[in-house]
Batch of 3 targets.
Target 1
Amino acid sequence: MASAHNPQGAAELAHAGQLLIGSQWQSASDQSVVEAVTNPYTGQTVAEITAAAAEDVEEAVRAAEAGAARWRRTPAHERSGILLRAAELADERVDRIAAILSAENGKTIAEATAECSRSGELIRLATFEGTQLYGETLPLDANPGTGLEKVGFTVRQPVGIVAAITPFNYPSLLVLHKIAPALAAGNAVILKPARTTPLTALALAQCFVDAGLPEGVLSVLTGAGSLIGDLLVSDPRIRKISFTGSTGVGERITQIAGVKKLSLELGASSPTVVLPDADLERAAEAVAKGGYANAGQVCISVQRVVVHRDVHADFVDALAAKVSQLRAGDPSSASTDIGTLITEGEAERVHDSIRDAVSRGARLVTGGDRDGAVVQPAIVDGVRLEDPLSQQELFGPAVAITEASDLDDALAVANGTPYGLAAGVFTGSVSTITKVIREVDAGSVHINWTPLWRADLMPYGGLKASGIGKEGPRAAVAEMTEVKTIVLHG
Ligand code: NAP
């Protein structure tokens, strides 16, 4: 019988067991294998999917070649009409897709519903940007020796085939941040969703198919990233890789991609700085949200809080009072604040990282216990910059606190990891804010909030080991198109 853990309709809505190849649902090749998608809280199978084989990847690329040729010749207003219908369907299906998402991912049903509620508007934003492929005129007569007989301008065209490779932690949002702008800009897309969360991707793809996306334009290849990812990334017919995931896989992509466009949204160890003139209550409230949402499995999660020593004790007390109230457990319950990690193995890794920090001299203020895939929300105080809990991405529900002696020290600690995705600062001083804006090396900087904040329209992407390029519909459409320079010789 269906339950919130194993939602009714997962199989038929998500076309589980089939691959989407060239906008058509079909059985995979004989070489493919069946894999179970597991609920990380109950351990039960949510649905079975097909892990695509090399033959399926080849079929999808061939279909995408035909699809890209067809879609780029489709006028932008026609593309727009189809995508706007997909947005409506995504809006209508929020509850069903959220139930699937929560079951396969382990995030709470409230978090899953909030994520899926952004789908329609995100598709509409991207659709609009796909109608805005402007170029510019070139003042060629300013070139010495050139007369008035030449006219120059640029035109923007789709790259062709985009491969979109997505992680498990936002199975709806991060899929749509890739496929919606790619389609809006006139590209064919091959999506490879995370192996642990393929059902949400299939359910979203169904919205586009039901909206009338033409043959060839969208494929979804479920299965192993090591096989499918390598084949897509190294294929010269694919002109753009849009990847979100770990820095390790991102580095591999840079090594085998060859000459093609890359957008890499990678890992992080995001800091939040709390200074003596901050509103401590507000800072503690924001960190209690930003460090634990989605069980800390957010690339912009607050992993580190760098606190000025004058307010260190008061801040830790204020934070502990809030974090100890958070309830971790059954994702399908409306009263749960924090669901599971994506697998029990990941929960073990996070638990071990917390214990390792304590063995190095840090103090566990609250939380940290593990039961299956659930880890109780933790605060670890006295973590040094050089410790693994600062330097390596945790991706779990724990916040590491490091004391700083002054503003310069705090900024050095904030900048002192290989990553640079996002940062936050709490202060009441405009001159401090100005310095932070100039000196913090992060792709987004939040003043009087934590890094865990995103509007879908904003440019979004990291510096340093956190990645290359920006997402957000306007930026993504720019990165998924090519500029051609045209010169008319009169
Ligand atoms: P991951 O292990 O790197 O996987 C991401 C995707 O890459 C999955 O679809 C995976 O497939 C695929 N993949 C695996 N090997 C591949 C290969 N050789 N070539 C191409 N693709 C391959 O990351 P994750 O554990 O799913 O997600 C967590 C990570 O994502 C964290 O590091 C987090 O910070 C990062 N992230 C970054 C952002 C951002 O905006 N910067 C946003 C969200 C998440 P399989 O699932 O089949 O292995």
Target 2
Amino acid sequence: MRTDQPKMIYLKDYQAPEYLIDETHLTFELFEDHSLVHAQLVMRRNPERAQLAQGGALPPLVLDGQLLELLSVKLADAELTPQDYQLTSDSLTVQPASESFTLDTSVKIHPETNTALEGLYKSSGMFCTQCEAEGFRKITYYLDRPDVMSKFTTTVSANKQAFPILLSNGNLIAAGPSEEEGRHWATWEDPFKKPAYLFALVAGDLWCIEDTFTTMTDRKVTLRIFVEPENVDKCQHAMDSLKKSMRWDEEVYGREYDLDIFMIVAVNDFNMGAMENKGLNIFNSSAVLARAETATDAAHQRVEAIVAHEYFHNWSGNRVTCRDWFQLSLKEGFTVFRDSGFSADMNSATVKRIQDVAYLRTHQFAEDAGPMAHAVRPDSFIEISNFYTLTVYEKGAEVVGMIHTLLGVEGFRKGTDLFFERHDGQAVTCDDFIKAMEDANGVDFTQFKRWYSQAGTPRLAVTESYDTDAKTYSLTFRQSAPTTPGQPGEQKLPFVIPVAMGLLDAEGQELPLRLQGEAPAVNTSRVLSVTEAEQTFTFVDIAEQPLPSLLRGFSAPVKLSFPYNRDQLMFLMQHDSDGFNRWDAGQQLSVQVLQDMIAQHQKGEPLVMDQRLITALHTVLSDESLDQAMVAEMLSLPGEAYLIEISEVADVDAIHAAREFARQQLADNLSDALWKRYQTNRELSKQTPYVAASEHFARRTLQNIALSYLMLTGKPEVLAAAIDQFDTADNMTERLTALAVLVNSPFDAEKAKALEVFAENFKDNALVMDQWFSVQAGSTLPGGLERVKALMQHPAFTMKNPNKVRALIGAFAGQNLINFHAADGSGYRFLANLVIELNGFNPQIASRQLAPLTRWRKYDSARQALMKAELERILASGPLSPDVYEVVSKSLA
Ligand code: TRP
Ligand code: ZN
């Protein structure tokens, strides 16, 4: 851990590297109590920098390195002595004597005690690596920055019995027994130049499933997924997802895979979802393993999406990579956009859009409004690991999506073709991406680029006016941007906001959209480009006052407001031709109804629910022609976290009370319709073997949401149905929902029994036990914190495993809001203690778990004081990692 004050790094200070590394030859000798890393780097002066220096003396070579024990250094074949180099806690500096040279280093490292899960570490007995963003410097001295791209050759040696499988990037070129008894080695060569963050190494006792993929130019690619032996029966879904991804990227983006082999390795201890290392993706086992009995539908869909995401990085990230870490969204925003498109094509596009937007609005909007708010391309950071954020990923994907909307499918494809062609093998910037889009389409995105530099969620207030005599209808848009750290709102310039929209007449028919000055219209849906702070669009030939449908498909990541009344929202719910907006109208209606009840609760009045919401949802529920997944989405009330996000001052108790009251009302009033749909779908589930496909997901989702509502009625037949579903389901989707409804119910004996049976059946499956922890951590019944504390003592729990921390602590602080925000501050104290503990051994996870406390400004003054005090206590708790230091100090600033 660093003890010196962490320092801020700025985008404006970017300079190209002084030296380049053409070839990287690595040798790893893995042992139980240490490992040795020998690196031979074939280097030369960066001509670009030499030109700038105009023949001056050669600059020193400063290599990154952390937690390395230096054993030897050779420069141009001459052994250096300590007088010849400078060593600090994060660098090694030598003075080259010529433009081209080789540098040889040997270091000793300790993967066996690496708990930060960055660099080379051990997970469940196997060796694995995580180098993004700056983990490679914990493996060897290097120019650990993405604009230094090198050809890697890697030799790994280890005990043959314990580590029969030895993997690295690229192709296996040689292998054999070592001279030393019981050991063996393998050499891998990656023909593609890559930055160090894409390096990977794996050594372990692994089994694999294998398949092949024939590319569009008829090349055969070997596909292997490596897992611990007991998990080979849970890889097929990931393999199917991989093949679908490879085909989709050829069909939709014209991108072909480039090596002869593609490998995925599942590891149990992993800080994030997965990592796109060239030819050797390393995955959190939760993002690979899925089969009916142990993984829910949501888990299956997550596996499919993450496999696709990492595979797509082969082009958007690896072949074309980032110049520096400020450009992270160049690869992440774009790749999320690509994986969303893939998931939309594999499943229901509307449902995928609804889920993405609900997530963005709840979590990214909250980030954008909090102390860590930053632009899609940040301009400074202390610790880059803190910037793998919802803003860089999800908002970054929305920004790419707006480009897609503005250019259309074909224009966008022309842009990506040019981008890949122009920059293949290069490390580039977000500006280069935009430039390719502009050049391929002959457009000017100068103003659009503000999305990359201005932080915060823009507001877009819309008003209308109808002129009966002229038969014109006008929409006026007023945009504004909030103040975010370092960026006053009033200094922000207008964004380009694509607003997809339509107009509905009194029958719900879509009107042709003709703007003043345009030729007669045929289209009934179009995209308005809002580019000014205030701008009016006037439609002509509008025979009657229409109802606007705005921001269809959520065409821009903004907070749009239009003064709809509840009847208008109900009308849109039924008639809007845009599925996303039908859902959104329902959400807006629900928000209005819930906000009434939140106000009633605050005034101490009895809660009364607007019956129109019940009527509207009854209509949806009874319409058997609707996609069942859509019905399920419409039936889901906005979450508490979203209601908090849209509050001025969030009253957690009132929000919880209002939402629970609404759920109870819906359950009581819709119970017949819910029961009918539940029974039909449950019967089908009983008759159909599990299939991980869209219409099956839809059926089970509706079945399960119906069950969750029905359980609130407390009827004995519902309890019996839940128990039956728990006991007899052949899949985790039904079983886990049954468990969850029991856990959240007042039926203590049934609950205890189900929890016990579940734990007994699945005690050997860590990922299933994560779900068992999560269901309990999320239960909003009183006493939540005590239950979580007790679960931390469970033998299956360990703080050292990030999935466990997320399953128990993350679920409690992120989803169990009524308990986490207990008025006595006990939830805050608990979380702060854990962050302090985690900071000592896994800074990345510590910093991520801290997020809920950073939102303290959202709450009432008593809670604010409690949360702030905990942040201050963390700050004073001793030497902090740069990760935690950055988040805590910015939160208190
Ligand atoms: N590039 C990874 C992705 O696909 C992100 C990632 C994986 C990561 N592991 C990490 C980032 C560890 C930081 C630290 O999104
Ligand atoms: Zn990614």
Target 3
Amino acid sequence: MTKYTLLLTLIVLTFSCKKDAEKPLESTEKTSSKYVEDAHSYAQPNKAVVTHLNLNIGVDFDNQVIEGQANYDIESRASSKLILDTKYLEIHEVEADGKPTYFELGDFDEQLGSPLIIEISEDTKQVTVHYSTTEKTEALQWLNPQQTADKQHPFLFTQGQAILTRTWIPIQDSPQIRITYDAKVKVPSGLMAVMSAENPKEIVANGKYEFKMQQPISPYLMALAVGDLAYKAVNDRTGVYAEKSMIDKAHAEFSDMEKMVVAAENLYGDYDWEQFDVIVLPPSFPFGGMENPRLTFATPTVIAGDKSLTSLIAHELAHSWSGNLVTNATWNDFWLNEGFTVYFEIRIMEALYGVERANMIALIGRQDLTEEIEAFRETPEMTKLKLDLSDKNPDDGMNSIAYDKGYLFLRTLEEKVGRDKFDAFLKQYFKSHAFSTITTEAFVDYLNTHLLEPNEVDFNVNEWIYEPGIPENQAVITSDKFENAEQTLQTFISEKSIDTSLTTNWTTQEWVHFIRNFPEGMTAEDMKRLDDAFDFTHSKNSHIAMVWYEQAINLDYHDNGVDREIEDFLIRVGRRWYVSTLYKAFKRHDKVDEALAIYKKARPNYHSVTANTIDDLLGFKS
Ligand code: BES
Ligand code: ZN
């Protein structure tokens, strides 16, 4: 941290305009360790804060329990209490500097869990909590062999974001906390354990693994996966983990990983985490990807066989800067993580594959944004970038607004100030805020003083961030390829016949656009003709299949075995974005009973994150 503080000071001193010079240096602000109010954590880090975690746990697949000790280095500011977040954990015993100390669990809240209040003294240096997880844990998904690719061994993975780490480790679970960690993890012999840390590359016979994470990370980035895994390097700092039957496919699909890291570094500065690996998880993983430091967790649905969905890898890589290095201070500031990451993702894709591909990805997001704004028409305050999620689940803010409105804001800003200035600004932003957290307000301040004022640019920043909807001055994104896809579709429909030569060399993005933009009056018969020509129903590309299934539900299309494929897809895949799109389509068309019939079979395969969302959507009570 000092390295960066010093750098920042030098930069501010060297380049400061008059206005800056009159202000207190930002470096003093940064080191004053003031944590802001976080409605989603009980921790009171301004009083006593955890700085390092030493975890020693055993993973028991038979009982589906993680049990062990978490030992913390703490910095206390004259407090007699250390407060940790917990949820659905059993706390057996707590020690302060090696001696048993008094602790209590406060009232339970459905969303936040219970504060673990631990008695300490002013000079307490370390606290140890002996604990175990319970069957209610929300972070962990225990999979039986049937739910894996190889069907031989069980599998376990964690998902911490947003506030689930507290369900497998007692922790100060606010994104503004930063900890380094060591871990000892014992797993059944024959399995490999990997974490968001320095990782093994081979299975260790006795099942004992040791980990180190030397860069301070936010608690939501603590992560563990255990299974019969193999590793295959792309080069000396990038590579993939997967089950054996998946490893070669994954390796081929992600062979541009190192190029992505180089492109990212060229844009916004050094990759600060040494290693960038991806683990391909079983299909129930609830997200496309999760940016766990050094080891991105990814869904196998990203493997299309032609690298056409790997913008997801660019996205998770981009989080190594926006999110992991410079972190949203609270979940109300989530757009700072995701909006910047989408912007950065699309810049990486542009650098690797050209502006046409980048614009297609951007346009798909632009359409998602229009749909999301429409979905929030009764609650327009949810379309602000800066949210107020107090007494809401942080998950409520995790939608297209943060991602795609965030992106559109940054793209509009880039066009206004010019790419060179914008890139220099972003590079400096990441450098000066590295390994720290930022609120929306602090970002606006930084933007004004480091980009807008020095360049005398007038920009409606406040409208973009603090008002609902999309401002008038939004960047306009276009794609000739998408326009062509729309025209081709029109031709197919009006001529009631399909000339497949018009679609040669189409990319996944064009197909997705083609399928999503069926015109008014399109019928199930039209879908049947398309399906006979292109066999979308059996597409191996998960994104194409998903949008096709959505239209099948929309237009009551039932031919070519599509109902069976939809059901199989919903049972096999747990990726929340995909499955919720399909269940929402059922609901929109008054087919909740059909949806529920499938959901009852699919739900046991879903991680809690997905199950909770779909429970709410379909009004399902377990
Ligand atoms: N960090 C998110 C996933 C996430 C968000 C988990 C909120 C929990 C709460 C990740 O980087 C992400 O955005 N994943 C997307 C990928 C995409 C936009 C390319 C996903 O999972 O679909
Ligand atoms: Zn993301």
